[in-house]
Amino acid sequence: MKQFISVNDIPDINAIVKEALAYKADPFKDRTLGKDKRIGLLFLNPSMRTRLSTQIAAQNLGMEPIVFNVGSEGWALEFEEEAIMSGSKVEHVKDAAPIMGKYFDILCIRTFPSLQNRDDDYSELYIKQFIKYAGIPVVSLESATLHPLQSLTDIITITEVLQSHTSQTSNPKPKIVLTWAPHVKALPQCVANSFAQWVNAWGEADFTITHPEDYELDEQFSKGANIVYNQEEALKDADFVYVKNWSTYKDYGKIYCNDPEWMLNADKLSITSNAKVMHCLPVRRNVELSDEILDGANSIITQQASNRVWAAQAVLSRLLRQ
Ligand code: CP
To answer: b/e for 135-172, b at 16 or more Cβ within 10 A?
Structure first.
């Protein structure tokens, strides 16, 4: 494996889930694998879980992590080829990335979409330019359209719950529902796209996506899922409910409906098959999810966030062994 930017870099999802859970059972079993290796974590945007879990994962493997908040502390980067740099951008990625390629053994990058121009965002220019010019393995810490470390974590968490003694799914395949939720601002489609891409590729679930009309995701990610506009109908018999807001894809980056009725609460949960509730965090309490759900017994959100370490460790481990 030379990069980790989507599920397409993982031909064997269940195998990497197993590797991640083995790290959870024994975090330091490969403590010298990354000895004398350095990993750069570049953030163009804020983060808590991704930043901390990837650093911990790297340290568990003996690597030295260096975090660079390039968005707030670095020179403003230009990504367009043949740009005439007479504006606010100070340094071109084709000059900066090769230097990072000399400083580090693995380079991890978080970028966000602008939500202004769909074609620009969906071209994934930022991460592709780092891959092109860094000359070392690149890991997405969330890109304009995808969040693969989050999605790997989500599959790990679902697998872990299914393997646990407390899980009792009556369905031949677990029913997973990704539900849109209200939010106060326009958010990227990354987490929803990525979750859909991974669950579809995994192929071990009965997968439904529910959202108000006009919030359809890009079909390259959602195709294969049942799309249901009625949330209550979608939630029937669900074993897992993944709650997430996203802005519109078709008329790009907009908030159309923001109906508070779409918030997941205890009444909605009662329609499910005692479903476990997931969210990538950060969450807007009592907007996306009610307190009673977040603080209740069905939430596996803390378990899910803690599993970010093992997902990152499994991915870094594969890159170190290449
Ligand atoms: N879920 C997630 O990526 O969290 P952070 O934005 O805090 O990294």
So the answer is: ebbbbbbbbbbbbbbbbbbbbbbbbbbeeeeeeebeee
217 C-alpha vs ligand 1 centroid, how far in Å? 21
52 touches ligand 1 (CB under 6 Å):
no
Looking at the structure, do residues 166 and 292 belong to the same domain, yes or no? yes
Tally of domains within the chain: 2
- 253-306 pLDDT tens trace: 999 989 999 999 999 999 999 999 999 999 999 999 999 999 999 999 999 999
Tell me if the pTM is above 0.85.
Answer: yes
Position 20 in a domain: yes
Domain that includes residue 44, residue range:
7-146+308-321
Cβ(183) – ligand 1 distance below 6 Å: no
* Residue 282 alpha carbon to ligand 1 centre in Å: 7
> What gap in Å lies between CA 136 and CA 284, rounded to an integer?
37
Is residue 48 domain-resident? yes
Are both 211 and 113 inside the same structural domain? no
Atom of ligand 1 nearest to the CA of 141: 3
Distance 158 CA to ligand 1 centre (A): 18
